[in-house]
Each structure stands twice: as structure tokens, then as C-alpha cells.
Specification:
CATH architecture of the largest domain: Orthogonal Bundle
Distance between the termini: 27 Å
CATH topology of the largest domain: Endonuclease III, domain 1
Helix content: 55-70%
Structural class: mainly alpha
Order of helices and strands: HHHHHHHHHHH
Strand content: under 5%
CATH superfamily of the largest domain: Hypothetical protein, domain 2
CATH class of the largest domain: Mainly Alpha
């Protein structure tokens, strides 16, 4: 005879499943996380610069640009004061130069209105030029420990494969639903590690092109 669960029982089962997913993912991340220069000192400025550089650019290509950029512009104040020609020269090779211009626009706002202090809350970070929900989530969770998701194309792909969800992830309504579901999974005690674990899983195991490396996936047991 099939057991009929009440709402509280269903929620308990779902919570255990989610906790199991987070635990498996974090254990894998602890053993397999990528050594990246911006992870060595994950200040809000470092996370911000790296995430903007990583948009439309491969991780390996970003590393040297990131080091060079930080050597010349180590903080919000220096970025707010740099001449645009020099800024674009530092950015040369990364493409999409509006990303660099928006960095300076945001730095000027932070310097003039916030005494060069980065805001901690997701909603306030979102107000800065050039920062969307993914980047705001990454900064808030990694630099400030805020319990918010950082959902990009990698995470959409992982989610749809994990749950056999064949709906079009290009639809805004579907993306909103996935973000809501991922938000429920983010552990309060280590949101930054959880989000970075998903980033690394999507980049190294749950690959976008070709066959995913399922035998190496920590979530294969529930996929």
C-alpha cells in the first residue's frame, strides 16, 4: 500500500534530499576546487572584478588579465580615478569594453556615495552599473556570506540535467523558477562555497558541450 505523505512530511523529505545534495556538493568541492587567484583573498572588490572579467571569457584567459589589473588598480578608489584610456588599455584583449566602462561608473558611485565601501546586501549591489543578479549573488555570497544564489548558464544546465527538466531554459519564467529552487538549496553556513562548487561543477564535470563526466559527478546518485 502506497504511503500518503502530508505537507509537513513532504517538506521534511524534500529538506533531507536538499541537505544531501548540498553536503555531497560541498564535500566534492573541498577536494576538487580550482585554485584561482581571486579565491586567494575573496574581498568584494576581487570577486567583483573577476566576475565581470569572466563574462564571455575563459577562466584561463582571465588569470593574467586579473593579476595585471589588480597590480595597477588594487581597490575601488584607484579604479574610480583611472583615466578611461588607461582602463581600456588594461582591458584590451578581454573584449566587450562596456564591461570596463561600467566598472569605472560603479567605482565612481561607490567612491562618491559610499566612501569606497562596497555594499553588502544583494539588492544594493544590484543597483550598481553592469551588475546583474548572478554577479550580485556571487559577490554577496562569496565576499559577505549572504545566503543568496549565484545562478548562471552553468547552474541552469546542472539543474535541468539533475532533475530531467526539459523545459526551455531561455524562458524568463523558467529561469525565475530555477533561481527560486536553487535559493532553497543554498546552505546558510557556507553560501559562497556552495555557489562556487556549482560554478566548478559546471565548468569541469557537467560540461556544456559533448558528454558530461557523469562518473566523476558528486550528484550522480540523484541525477
Amino acid at each position: 500500500m502506497q504511503k500518503v505523505f502530508g505537507q509537513s512530511e513532504r517538506e521534511s523529505v524534500n529538506l533531507k534530499k536538499k541537505n544531501k545534495l548540498a553536503a555531497a556538493l560541498l564535500e566534492w568541492y573541498a577536494a576538487n576546487k580550482r585554485e584561482l587567484p581571486w579565491r586567494q583573498a575573496p574581498s568584494p572588490y576581487h570577486v567583483w572584478i573577476s566576475e565581470i572579467m569572466l563574462q564571455q571569457t575563459r577562466v584561463e584567459a582571465v588569470k593574467e588579465y586579473y593579476r595585471r589589473f589588480l597590480k595597477r588598480l588594487p581597490d575601488i578608489k584607484s579604479l574610480s580615478e583611472v583615466d578611461e584610456d588607461e582602463l581600456l588599455k588594461l582591458w584590451q584583449g578581454l573584449g566587450y569594453y562596456n564591461r570596463a566602462r561600467n566598472l569605472k561608473k560603479a567605482a565612481v558611485i561607490l567612491a562618491e556615495e559610499c566612501d569606497s565601501v562596497f555594499p553588502e546586501e544583494f539588492e544594493e549591489i544590484m543597483k550598481l552599473p553592469g551588475i546583474g543578479a548572478y554577479t550580485a549573488g556571487a559577490i554577496a555570497s562569496i565576499a559577505f556570506g549572504k545566503c543568496v544564489p549565484a545562478v548562471d548558464g552553468n547552474v541552469y544546465r546542472i539543474y535541468t540535467r539533475l532533475y530531467g527538466d526539459g523545459e526551455d531554459i531561455g524562458k524568463a519564467s523558467h529561469q525565475k523558477r530555477i533561481r527560486e529552487e536553487i535559493t532553497k538549496l543554498v546552505p546558510e553556513e557556507c553560501p559562497g562555497d556552495f555557489n562556487q562548487a556549482l560554478m566548478d561543477l559546471g565548468a569541469t564535470v557537467c560540461l556544456p558541450n559533448g558528454e558530461p563526466l557523469c562518473a566523476e559527478c558528486p550528484l550522480f546518485f540523484m541525477c
